């Protein structure tokens, strides 16, 4: 007898179907778990490693739209994005089947099924998955509705590059702790996505993560925003207000762009972290806070410390664990899979038929340096989907700017000229935003807003 293929999870509300499938599949799988309802599916997925899921499309009597099956397909992909899912439907509805494939399913089987075909479909799904991903474990990473195939690309996508897999292993080790984490990486690499992934894997995930964009917090409102204030403590303080530290109690506080925090305010943040308490503006009473701190920056903080621009003691406090996200050009094997995820998402968003990349487009996307990383790729795909009128995306739809001085790359619009000027000044000033703003003759806040706009 051939080698058995690990564990299969079957979800169907027909107990007769479940019994028949157990008998049919026993020679082919080591473990066969059946669920008559998908309600407990998320917890069952966490119990062991699965090789494939056979998921019915309809669970509510009299409602045969398949939407419930698609909902549970998305839930599976959130929890185990690499886990193959074969859809089981009693209706030979090709549109629904195609939609299911686009939204993450590996294949589908129509009831009443052919035994040989069903077994072949399941084994092929397992085989294909094993060639792409080493494991489909409960902690294999999560994405949401539009990330893989059509899952939420605003959530973490791990890909298959060695660098990202090493990062993933480290994240899974440290996520369950309360250690302070510093995430570094270029703009557009997904630092906030990674912070949310860490939070979702932690014991604090029952409450939402609280995020603060440090580059967008004005100096005058820094203390009020982070520590809160008392009524009457300043002109517009019409009522007592809790700050972000208190809002993140028993949860995770994410401080994005920590390198943009002015030096004289860094001591106030350090004090709050060291004492594990804050004092609201206008009060003298310390308030204990229980938070898990995650910070992120695209700056070289050790270099800033050497230049006297960032406090060394604060760096030590926030840097118990350091996670570096590699740039997209350092993991070119992830470019096309990510592009396909964005294609699926934007086709759905703009109500367009699913389209595919031509070979020329694949080559062009793979060779592009992607200095704006995943954010730049996302914008390029969205623009291409909007203007595409065919069932394929050819290379010429992707007008990709390059960081060179060649005529082809010269700025053709005022916005491109402005973006290039900011880039050059950032390089010249080694990322010191105060110096960049002064040299460009704009405020620090205006500079920050323009950097956000251009993905710098």
Automatic annotation (TrEMBL):
Residues 129-151 are annotated as: Disordered. Keywords: ATP-binding, Nucleotide-binding, Phosphoprotein, Transcription, Transcription regulation. Residues 129-146 have a biased composition (Polar residues). The modification 4-aspartylphosphate is found at residue 56. It holds the Pfam family AAA_lid_14. Coiled coil: none annotated. Residues 7-126 form the Response regulatory domain. Residues 157-386 form the Sigma-54 factor interaction domain. The keyword Cell division does not apply. GO terms for molecular function: ATP binding; sequence-specific DNA binding. GO terms for biological process: phosphorelay signal transduction system; regulation of DNA-templated transcription. SMART domains: AAA (SM00382), REC (SM00448). This is Sigma-54 dependent transcriptional regulator. It comes from Bacteroides muris. The lineage of its organism: Bacteria, Pseudomonadati, Bacteroidota, Bacteroidia, Bacteroidales.
């Amino acid at each position: 007898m051939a080698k058995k293929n690990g564990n299969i999870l079957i979800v169907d509300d027909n107990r007769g179907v479940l019994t028949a499938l157990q008998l049919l599949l026993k020679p082919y799988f080591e473990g066969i778990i059946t669920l008559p309802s998908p309600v407990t599916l998320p917890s069952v997925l966490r119990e062991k490693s699965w090789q494939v899921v056979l998921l019915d499309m309809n669970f509510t009597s009299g409602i045969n739209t398949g939407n419930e099956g698609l909902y549970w397909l998305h839930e599976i992909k959130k929890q185990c994005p690499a886990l193959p899912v074969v859809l089981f439907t009693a209706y030979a509805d090709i549109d629904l089947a195609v939609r299911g494939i686009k939204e993450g399913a590996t294949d589908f089987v129509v009831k009443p099924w052919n035994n040989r075909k069903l077994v072949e479909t399941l084994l092929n799904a397992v085989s294909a998955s094993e060639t792409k991903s080493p494991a489909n474990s409960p902690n294999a990473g999560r994405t949401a509705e539009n990330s893989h195939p059509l899952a939420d690309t605003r959530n973490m996508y791990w890909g298959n590059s060695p660098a990202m897999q090493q990062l993933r292993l480290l994240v899974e080790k440290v996520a369950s702790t309360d250690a302070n984490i510093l995430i570094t990486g270029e703009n557009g690499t997904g630092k906030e996505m990674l912070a949310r992934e860490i939070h979702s894997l932690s014991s604090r995930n029952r409450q939402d993560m609280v995020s603060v964009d440090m580059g967008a917090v004005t100096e005058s409102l820094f203390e009020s925003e982070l520590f809160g204030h008392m009524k009457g403590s300043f002109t517009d303080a019409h009522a007592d207000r809790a700050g972000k530290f208190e809002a993140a109690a028993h949860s995770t506080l994410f401080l994005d762009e920590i390198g943009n925090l002015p030096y004289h305010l860094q001591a106030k943040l350090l004090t709050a972290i060291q004492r594990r308490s804050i004092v609201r503006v206008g009060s003298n009473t310390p308030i204990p806070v229980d938070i898990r701190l995650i910070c992120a920056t695209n700056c070289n903080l050790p270099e800033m410390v050497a230049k006297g621009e960032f406090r060394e003691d604060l760096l030590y406090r926030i840097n118990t664990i350091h996670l570096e996200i590699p740039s997209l050009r350092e993991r070119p094997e992830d470019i096309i899979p990510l592009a396909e995820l964005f294609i699926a998402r934007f086709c759905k968003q703009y109500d367009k038929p699913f389209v595919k990349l031509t070979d020329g487009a694949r080559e062009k996307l793979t060779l592009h340096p992607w200095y704006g990383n995943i954010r730049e790729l996302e914008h390029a795909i969205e623009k291409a989907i909007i203007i595409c009128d065919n069932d394929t995306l050819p290379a010429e739809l992707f007008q990709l700017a390059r960081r060179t001085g060649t005529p082809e790359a010269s700025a053709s619009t005022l916005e491109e000229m402005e973006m290039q000027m900011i880039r050059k000044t950032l390089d010249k000033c080694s990322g010191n935003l105060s110096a960049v703003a002064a040299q460009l003759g704009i405020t620090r806040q205006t500079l920050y807003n323009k950097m956000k706009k251009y993905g710098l």
